[in-house]
Write a structure and sequence with these properties.
By secondary structure, the chain is an all-alpha fold. It has a single domain (3-190), classed as Tetracycline Repressor, domain 2 (Orthogonal Bundle). The chain is built from 9 helices and no strands. The termini are far apart. Residues 6-66 form the HTH tetR-type domain. It holds the Pfam family TetR_N. Keywords: DNA-binding, Transcription, Transcription regulation.
């Protein structure tokens, strides 16, 4: 398929990721995603015959890959640079949406889902694992102890996710700023 024929599909995936990060999975319908993405409702069923769960899984992977690309681009310069890139990204998302948008990966992870939601939860677990792996690899490459690198990577991902939730609740980037400052000091001490 050509890139132009994939454009409506990508619009739907990006639109779903945006709605999930703002409203959660359970409050997001296929009809609303189509409207939000300015795509015909019928195209959602054409591109996503598995329905909402298929679209949500792809939206989670899309969001995950967006962050992974940012990390890959910045982690070569070092884990502190990767951390700073994440801080900048989250500050921009939070302030740019008036604290209405969080992380779609987290959103699908914490919502109660039926057995059909296992695919979406698996996508979220895969994304979180990918972020941890990228961070751990960079930490090891820049001198962090091989056993401590995965632990520190888990701490970074967990701290960011929690800080984003707090920022949304408090309508301030204070929690993100505090987490970033402490994580930067911790990473600097490890590498």
């Amino acid at each position: 398929m050509s890139a132009s024929s994939q454009q409506p599909r990508l619009q739907l995936v990006a639109g779903a990721a945006d709605m999930i990060r703002r409203r959660g999975l359970n409050a997001t319908s296929i009809r609303e995603v189509a409207k939000h993405a300015q795509a015909p409702l019928g195209s959602t069923y054409h591109y996503f015959p598995g329905g909402k769960r298929q679209l949500a899984g792809e939206a989670v992977r899309f969001a995950g890959e967006t962050v992974s690309e940012l990390l890959r681009k910045n982690l070569d310069a070092g884990p502190v640079e990767g951390l700073r890139a994440l801080l900048d990204l989250w500050r921009e998302i939070l302030t740019g949406t008036d604290f209405q948008a969080g992380c779609p990966v987290l959103a699908v992870s914490v919502e109660e889902q039926d057995d059909e939601g296992a695919e979406v939860r698996a996508a979220a677990a895969e994304v979180f694992g990918g972020w941890e792996s990228l961070l751990a690899d960079s930490l090891r490459q820049h001198g962090c102890d091989a056993e401590r690198a995965p632990q520190l990577a888990t701490l970074v991902v967990s701290a960011f996710e929690g800080a984003v939730v707090m920022c949304r609740a408090q309508r301030s980037t204070r929690a993100l700023d505090h987490v970033g400052e402490r994580l930067e000091a911790l990473i600097a001490a490890e590498v």
